[in-house]
Amino acid sequence: MTIPQLVSSFVPCDRTRPEIRLALLGLGRVGSAVAALVHEPFAGRPVPMRIITALVRTERRGPSHASTPSTTDPSAIFDGDPDVIVEALGGLEPARTLVLEAIRRGIPVVTANKSLLAHHGGELLDAAARAGVPLRYEASVIAGVPFLGMFARRPYASRIHSLCGLVNGTTNYIVSELDVRGGDYLDVLAEAQRRGLAEPDPTKDVDGIDAAEKLCVLLRQFAARAVRPEQIATTGISRLHAADLVQARELGGTIKPVVAAQWSEASVTAFAGPAFLPSNHALARLQGAANGLSLRDVEGHRLCFTGPGAGPRATAVTVLDDVVESLYETPAPALTVRPASSAAPETGWFVRLGGAAATIGARERDALLEREGVGVTRSTDRRTCRGLDAQWFVTRPIEQSRLDLALRALPHAHTGPILSVRTLDADV
Ligand SMILES: NC(=O)c1ccc[n+]([C@@H]2O[C@H](COP(=O)([O-])OP(=O)(O)OC[C@H]3O[C@@H](n4cnc5c(N)ncnc54)[C@H](OP(=O)(O)O)[C@@H]3O)[C@@H](O)[C@H]2O)c1
Fold it and tell me: Exposure pattern of 387-410 as b/e (b: 16+ CB <10 Å)?
């Protein structure tokens, strides 16, 4: 592992600076929360802030936007020489082009955009390092818990070799609701949308894409590896049934939508998707939209962070702290990041056999699975739970392709809903 030389040192706040002038890209949920926070009085703020211009797609009128001058012309965001650019557009373009242009002009950039970092992080961070311009992205992963910058400035503390995180509040909320209240997945999703906890188009969250992008940001930081989101083995939560959560408890654990990775000099294994965690796992008790990250260092110690993952207000707070840091603190030394491929890890599995496939007896099932190399460690009897007739069991670690083959060989396997989710040990 490369330990970059620590050259960063805190530069005391320049209280003679009369104000910090921001150009804000995007006035959506995060952008509007940033604007609102800038306009609020706050005694602890080192220097007053002012938004000199905000980039919008269409001009908006109304009290909430009256105090924020706006433009629909992307090139106009550099007029008036902003001190910092805050990118809150989301997506890849025009965010990438505007961030690169800001760096070219020597203007520090703050972003909360994990897609941008997952897909173009190497290009943007290399450009920023070459130009000596801060590019901060603390709010891109677990926005309400600032840990990325802290590790960037403390490279010895970053000697991490594995991580496990609940990094998507929407899916943690949905899975928690399915667990605690039961009900149908689509009803719980609709309720999350009504409460503003899921997007009108929830695909990126429920299919695990958002989590995989955040995992790429985490791998860059902690493993110094550039892994592309499409290289991460990713599964969604939409096939989970409320009965799976009850039976997971029966089998000594719980199901959570996680990202997990471990790495060595030679390889990275990682996945994003629902996983069965033993009930003594550090993240097993996190409910609702809460986020968490468990890091295991090379000495075997565990570091845990939990807190609000997103929400415009929590994100805006972290964004504005990044603004202050980008002006008053020397950038952390750039990590030497190597491109890497990522393979799915070999894990155990929590399996549900439904429909006619559930009629198989435990002895016959175990014998048939054993013949294919799949060892069963715990199982329930066949039962009807929350309206689902099925049986559930947990296996020893085995490759997914071998598990799939073994499950397909069971009698009536094609007739019922079969689900398999990875299991993680308590020490991951
Ligand atoms: N929401 C959260 O809690 C949260 C938390 C952490 C990180 N983030 C990240 O923060 C970023 C912003 O998220 P958000 O929730 O604020 O999204 P949002 O509500 O969709 O806001 C994005 C805004 O950018 C505007 N925009 C997009 N493309 C534009 C263009 N080409 N020109 C001008 N304006 C454009 C959109 O305008 P239109 O409305 O006209 O499309 C919209 O107002 C994303 O990268 C997201 O991943 C969000």
Answer: ebebbbbbbeebebeebeebbeeb
